[in-house]
Design goal:
This protein is mostly helical and 171 residues long. Helices cover 82% and strands 0% of the residues.
Length: 171
């Protein structure tokens, strides 16, 4: 109901989510963690507002998906700037793009995984907060675990995709 009353277009909320994600790069880590969560909240609101205001469009869905990927990449960059290894950041960014790209191309989620967007958002926020208190070792370990999870997810998605294609050919 709140979305119906908000005097803002859903595309504006999408844009604000990306701006909040970009601002993460410009502020101290603890403020960045709050901005990561704010970005995720705005991202969750845009689709809800679009539906409640009867403004859901194909353009809005594409804008939302592109905004999500931009935010994901900005979150990885924020972690690298906070001290995560660059190559690990590149690998995680590639994993996210491959995972979400595969889903976009196939038109559906083949496997629900631990690497979903809410998990990535929380991992980013916790990573930014942990660097000053726990140190870079914890961030590197968390990044390595995340990369391993992405590898498993991509493998699972690829296997599920092959099975789906094989079933279609068999019909």
């Amino acid at each position: 109901r709140l979305g119906r009353r908000l005097p803002v277009h859903p595309d504006v909320l999408t844009g604000l989510a990306v701006v909040a994600a970009g601002a993460v790069l410009l502020v101290p880590a603890w403020v960045g963690a709050l901005l990561v969560l704010t970005s995720a909240l705005l991202d969750g609101l845009d689709g809800s507002v679009a539906v409640q205001q009867d403004r859901a469009t194909r353009h809005g869905a594409v804008l939302d998906a592109v905004g999500d990927r931009v935010c994901d990449l900005l979150f990885v960059l924020a972690l690298v700037l906070a001290g995560a290894p660059l190559l690990l950041g590149i690998a995680c960014a590639a994993g996210v793009l491959l995972l979400e790209g595969t889903r976009t191309v196939t038109g559906r989620v083949l496997v629900i995984t631990v690497a979903e967007r809410p998990t990535r958002v929380l991992a980013t926020a916790l990573g930014l907060v942990s660097v000053p208190t726990v140190g870079l070792g914890a961030l590197t370990l968390a990044s390595a675990v995340g990369l391993a999870q992405f590898s498993l997810v991509l493998t699972g998605d690829a296997v599920a995709s092959r099975r789906t294609c094989a079933r279609r050919r068999g019909r």
